[in-house]
């Protein structure tokens, strides 16, 4: 069913178009010499946060541009499949991977076992570690065309972990100095050739790629944090592929140009359990009871989201099937209690979610102040526990294709993304059990038990599960629509 078109103020369109003027200008190599099409113009939402280091969340940009690759990739079900490794076998704490022959990095050097070990060791010894390695001690050793990865304890998800873009394999040149520079150092069908800070990047087709040759001659990327500007780029033809179109803009676009997919991404209110008002579990319960998630879905997301029953949403259908009633603490009286809620502007809906929550919590008796900034300016304060509550749009299976890693990162006592500052023995035990259980039905059951343990503390109040809205211009062929946000432009993508 088509959404009725709504008029957008001319001033908004003009401002958005002005913002994009020149961003997607022709490079002079816009059209391929062999007539296969032109360079693909991509409008991304978030600019690089760490200079495109693969050891950060910037790794997912490298993956979405098909420039950096991993030993393993995941199929739609989350099962491990060959990539830079062709096969693997397990022996206790060790997994041995056979490295694909005939692969070269973009600087012309060969992919070898030593190169793989170099990348994995750099990730395993980084401070902080990539999120996928939270709680994991990992070492790697090369022997000819094989690499053996050993963990401190048995880990049934080593192949899935190695599929994370944060464990991409790069050429030795990328690791000179303290930072990791991926320019000209990947193995994918597109070579990253230029990065202009947080404004743009360029990639060219890598003709010596080991797999199928890319159909497009290159990719021109512009980072456009403003959601209205991104939508305008699709509407005016300034961009071919537009990432994360805001819900507020989706209805005014040609519905044939947008794709909507349920994501493993949950919009959650994290409550500070260590200090302040929400150190009191009964007041956390009061906050949970005050929240009307359905009104947020209808009012802010215009129905393009799903009300949350737990931390894991419809992108993981088995979660609802296994979930049971969670034991809750009785709500206390929040009257007159002052709290500060933080969130960020990079996702266009979050400030509006914050404003709606402010009204709902104030109606319940809380006094609520909002602190809304760009993500790069607020993340450190959130992780340091400077807010009473924080609204976060969080991917739940982004790293390994398995939600245990997300749950551990966000809610374990030593989790690297523990915004709620949670330290609970029962939660830690449930998370350890889930992390150590073999893949399959038993692991899924343990994951849901861990989710229940977290929800029982009210350290996090899941509100809704988002859907990704991606814009593809009429001439775009083969763009990926990936709920895990790992793929976007592939070797098969081109513009007619």
TrEMBL record:
Keywords: Signal. InterPro entries: Peptide/Ni-bd, SBP_5, SBP_5_dom. CDD domains: PBP2_NikA_DppA_OppA_like_3. It holds the Pfam family SBP_bac_5. Residues 81-416 form the Solute-binding protein family domain. It comes from the Bacteria. PROSITE patterns: PROKAR_LIPOPROTEIN (PS51257). The keyword Signal applies. Residues 1-25 form the signal peptide. Coiled coil: none annotated. This is ABC transporter substrate-binding protein. It comes from Streptomyces neyagawaensis.
């Amino acid at each position: 069913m088509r959404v009725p078109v709504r008029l957008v103020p001319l001033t908004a369109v003009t401002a958005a178009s002005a913002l994009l003027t020149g961003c997607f200008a022709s490079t002079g190599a816009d059209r391929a010499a062999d007539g296969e099409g032109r360079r693909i113009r991509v409008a991304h939402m978030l600019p690089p946060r760490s200079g495109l280091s693969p050891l950060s969340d910037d790794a997912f940009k490298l993956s979405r541009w098909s420039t950096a690759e991993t030993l393993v990739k995941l199929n739609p079900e989350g099962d491990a499949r060959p990539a830079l490794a062709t096969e693997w076998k397990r022996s206790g704490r060790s997994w041995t991977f056979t490295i694909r022959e005939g692969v070269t990095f973009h600087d012309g050097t060969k992919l070898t076992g030593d190169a793989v070990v170099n990348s994995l060791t750099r990730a395993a010894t980084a401070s902080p570690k990539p999120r996928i390695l939270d709680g994991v001690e990992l070492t790697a050793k090369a022997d000819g065309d094989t690499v053996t990865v050993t963990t401190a304890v048995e880990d049934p998800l080593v192949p899935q972990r190695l599929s994370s873009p944060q464990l991409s394999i790069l050429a030795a040149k990328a690791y000179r100095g303290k930072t990791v520079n991926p320019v000209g150092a990947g193995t994918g069908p597109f070579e990253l050739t230029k990065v202009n800070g947080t404004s743009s990047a360029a990639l060219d087709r890598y003709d010596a790629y080991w797999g199928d040759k890319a159909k497009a001659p290159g990719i021109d990327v512009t980072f456009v944090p403003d959601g209205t500007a991104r939508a305008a780029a699709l509407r005016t033809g300034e961009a071919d592929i537009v990432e994360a179109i805001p819900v507020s803009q989706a209805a005014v676009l040609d519905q044939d140009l947008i794709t909507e997919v349920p994501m493993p991404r949950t919009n959650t209110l994290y409550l500070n359990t260590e200090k302040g008002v929400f150190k009191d579990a009964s007041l956390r319960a009061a906050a949970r009871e005050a929240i009307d998630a359905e009104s947020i879905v209808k009012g802010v997301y215009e129905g393009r989201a799903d009300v949350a029953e737990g931390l894991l949403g419809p992108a993981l259908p088995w979660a609802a099937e296994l979930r049971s009633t969670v034991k809750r603490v009785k709500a206390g009286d929040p009257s007159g209690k002052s709290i500060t809620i933080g969130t960020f502007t990079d996702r266009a809906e979050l400030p509006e979610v914050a404003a709606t929550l402010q009204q709902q919590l104030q109606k319940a008796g809380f006094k609520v102040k909002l602190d809304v900034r760009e993500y790069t300016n607020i993340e450190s304060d959130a992780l340091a526990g400077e807010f009473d509550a924080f609204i976060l749009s969080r991917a739940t299976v982004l790293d390994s294709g398995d939600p245990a890693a997300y749950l551990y990162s966000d809610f374990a006592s030593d989790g690297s993304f523990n915004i709620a500052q949670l330290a609970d023995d029962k939660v830690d035990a449930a998370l350890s059990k889930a992390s150590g259980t073999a893949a399959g039905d038993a692991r899924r059951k343990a994951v849901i038990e861990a989710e229940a343990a977290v929800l029982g503390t009210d350290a996090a109040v899941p509100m809704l599960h988002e859907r990704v809205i991606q814009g593809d211009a009429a001439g775009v062929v083969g763009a990926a629509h990936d709920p895990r946000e790992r793929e976007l432009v592939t070797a098969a993508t081109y513009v007619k």
